[in-house]
Amino acid sequence: MRILITNDDGINAPGLEVLHTIATDLAGASGEVWTVAPAFEQSGVGHCISYTHPTMISEFGRRRFAAEGSPADCVIAALHDVMKDSPPDLILSGVNKGNNSAENTLYSGTIGAAIEAAIQGLPAIALSQYYGPGNIALRNQFEAAATHGADVIRKILAAPGAFDSHPYKLFYNVNFPPVPAAAVKGTRAVAQGFREGGTGMGMKADIAPNGRKFLWITGAPQNVPSGEDTDATANLDGFVSVTPMRADLTAYDRLQTLKDAIE
After folding, report:
1. Contact 63, 34 (CB under 8 A)
2. Is 23 inside a domain boundary?
3. pTM
4. Is residue 254 part of a domain?
């Protein structure tokens, strides 16, 4: 198996090293693991692409490249330049430092890479490691992902119709719980949740020494459940969450009502 890995934390992020180990396990002795990752951290850029300026790409080693762009840029660069003569069989994004459960999914560059891979017609899985009191002090905070990652991916790949022929192809969002590897209770297929009362980004103003005003993005509490049978709730309960997703944003539950109203 030929696997492409990327992330949004940057080429030197420890989570990317964890993902390389996972991918190497999956690829097998005769497989290949290629890395095309952002030269610098790109957290929170979502599915952004560098449409208005070029992206410089540099070779850091054998099958290892850094691009001055977003995670989605990295996927495009890999498919149409770096690996254009030998495309990957699978694209993995992560392992993100912090969860991409619930509403975090919508901001995530890790997810953005998986979206771009799916749009390009390739199987893709995004992986993220939840942080919390149970693992923040561990020597290896990615322990749960490192231990269980390859097995979870194999289960996804073995599922019937894992990557269908729908125009907006399936991709998967995997989040590992904020606990040591030995404390992981299992894996749950769940929906994307929403953290009621603890959601959304804010702004904090600060005045620089030169008198100029700057605004800093502030996050929301992460230890908030997201509803029954959803990702953040499963993670906080000690389970790996797996959520099947598509990039189709149509609200199908409202489509007929809208047709009746405006047509």
Report:
1. yes
2. yes
3. 0.95
4. yes
Residue 50 annotated in ligand binding: no
Q: Which of 69, 59, 76 is nearest to 38 (CA)?
A: 69
3-state secondary structure of 4: strand
Tell whether residue 164 is among the known ligand binding residues: no
CATH number at residue 134: 3.40.1210.10
Q: What does the pLDDT read at residue 200?
A: 74
Question: pLDDT exceeding 90 applies to what percent of the chain?
Answer: 94
Residue 199 lies in a domain: no
State the residue for tokens 């959803």.
230
State yes or no: 9 annotated in a binding site. yes
Cα–Cα distances in angstroms (integers) from residue 175 to residues 3, 61, 62, 196, in the given order: 20, 29, 29, 19
**81 annotated ligand-binding residue:** no
E-state strands within 39-156 = 57-61, 64-67, 90-97, 124-129
User: How many structural domains comprise the chain?
Assistant: 1
Q: What are 23-27's contacts with CB under 8 Å, separation 24+?
A: 23/92, 25/150, 26/1, 26/90, 26/150, 26/153, 26/154, 27/1, 27/2, 27/3
Instruction: Judge whether 247 lies within some domain.
Output: yes
Domain that holds residue 96: 2-194+223-262
Alpha-carbon distance of 243 to 97, in angstroms, equals 18
